Amino acid sequence: MFKIKKFQKEVADFLEIEIYKIKFENLGEDTPYKLLLHDNYLAINKKLKKDEIKLMEIICVEYRKLYQMKERLAHAKGKFKDTSYEYRAWVSDNRIEKELSYSESKLDCDAFTRYYLQRFKGIELKYDFNQYAKNLDIFIDKNINRFELDRIRKEKEAIKAKDL
Question: Is residue 48 within 8 Å of 32, Cβ to Cβ?
Fold first, then answer.
């Protein structure tokens, strides 16, 4: 049985962000989910409550958006305490009037979701267009440090600490 809170914690810990509450609501036919920042929760359509893969996908996408917001705020304030050099460089190189464009942001969220679910859950997401999956895989291969670097650094530090 899928434990949504456990999965939320895993993704939030990986991205080093806060866990957002999830509420299942009647959002109508055309709205699968929406992130309500002002109320600090993620609303998911009740119809998706039993679709485990869709729930994992939604959580990954929306948590990545929250991560992007955290990074933008850090960039705007000039503080990068817990941010990898590669991510800082990518944010700096890809800014359009101090914000990522919608398409870059969406691509990053979708690529992270595909990467995370493949690597940690063994889930291969299906898309309406096979080319989109190929484009995401290319993006992941070219930008793997955006998803891995901080995690690898922490794992190496943990191994060093054990050896001491």
Answer: yes
Name the burial class of residue 83, with classes exposed (0-12), middle (13-18) and buried (19+) by CB atoms within 10 angstroms of its CB.
middle
Residue that is written with structure tokens 């190929």 in the block: 134
Cβ atoms 4, 22 nearer than 8 A: yes
Q: What angle do CA 7, 13, 16 make, to 5 degrees?
A: 140
- Count how many Cα atoms sit within 13 Å of the Cα of residue 68 in the half-sphere of its side chain: 23
Report residue 79: phi and psi, to 5°: -115, 125
Query: Each residue of 54-97: pLDDT tens digit?
Result: 999 999 999 998 888 887 776 665 544 445 555 555 555 554 33
Helices 144-163 and 130-142: crossing angle, nearest 10°? 50
> How do residues 91-138 score in pLDDT, each as one tens digit?
555 543 344 455 778 889 999 999 999 999 999 998 888 889 999 999
Q: What are phi and psi of 23, to 5 degrees?
A: -125, 130
Cα distance between residue 30 and residue 35, in whole Å? 15
Cα gap 164→159, rounded to integer Å: 9
